[in-house]
Amino acid sequence: MKLFGLIGQSLTHSYSANYFTQKFAKEKFTDCRYNFYPLQSLNQLNELVKTNQQLIGFNVTIPFKETIIPFLDDLDETAMKIQAVNTVCIFREGLKYFLKGFNTDVYGFKNSVDFPEKVKKALILGTGGAAKAVAFALSTMGISTIFVSRNPLDKHSIYYQDLKLEHFQEYQLIVNATPVGMFPDIKSYPVLPYHFIQSGNILYDLVYNPAITRFMQFGMEKGATVFNGLKMLELQAEESWKIWNSMDCFDLQ
Q: Do residues 126 and 150 share a domain?
């Protein structure tokens, strides 16, 4: 049996296991299984990898996309640039093992939506690993970004409470890269001045459970175009699968 999976602290929101279980059944991969591996701390990672000798690779979700890096032996170029990882390969050599990190969130986001040419600037809500992946993807598309945070770190980020009408006029795209509004806390939403949203805005929520978040609903009420993160999830999952089954997985430097 070949094992794959997802690590994170709370995994009840995730569709990944269902996605891969359906994929394995559809494509008749009878020797593959995708499991949830909830961890309270990355100090448990070593024991997880050692005791699951059939584990080939795993995805990484909140809150470990950035903090997992010191636990890895190598990073691919994209993960190195953005300092965030959501996919890990395991190479085993006897009792030893080596972990290599990748970021397929960039690919998933970049290929999930064809943004109109008018979109030149974007607000990214959050500053974590997912936000970094979105910012990197948008930069390759010629879209400049600014982070919106409760604790801005530099000139490229601002406080939520500092958002004004001109931000929503200048920044056509607004991406929620936080877990706010995700199941089971579906009544929550990023605290924005939603009355400033216009029909020309595009609201993209990386959350996909529920399918329509409060963030998206508020945008729809203002006539904005909205997307959830399901397509991104599917694309990044397929990219993870390609990596786990390619030599890149074992090309340690």
A: yes
How many domains would you assign to the chain? Answer: 2
Looking at the fold, whether 211 and 128 belong to one and the same domain comes out as yes
Catalytic: which of 50, 65, 110, 132?
A: 65
| Mean pLDDT, the chain cut into blocks of 10 residues (253 residues total) | 94 91 96 96 97 96 96 96 97 91 97 94 96 97 95 83 96 97 95 96 97 98 97 97 79 48
CA distances from 11 to 15, 36, 248 (A): 9, 7, 27
Q: Which domain holds residue 164?
A: 113-228
Q: Any catalytic annotation for residue 121?
A: no
CB atoms closer than 10 angstroms to residue 142 = 9
The two three-digit tokens of residue 27, written as one number? 């494509």
The Cα–Cα gap between 71 and 208 comes to: 28
* DSSP reduced 3-state for 216: helix
Q: Are strands 96-102 and 87-93 parallel, antiparallel or unpaired?
A: antiparallel
CATH number at residue 156: 3.40.50.720
**Whole-prediction pTM:** 0.93
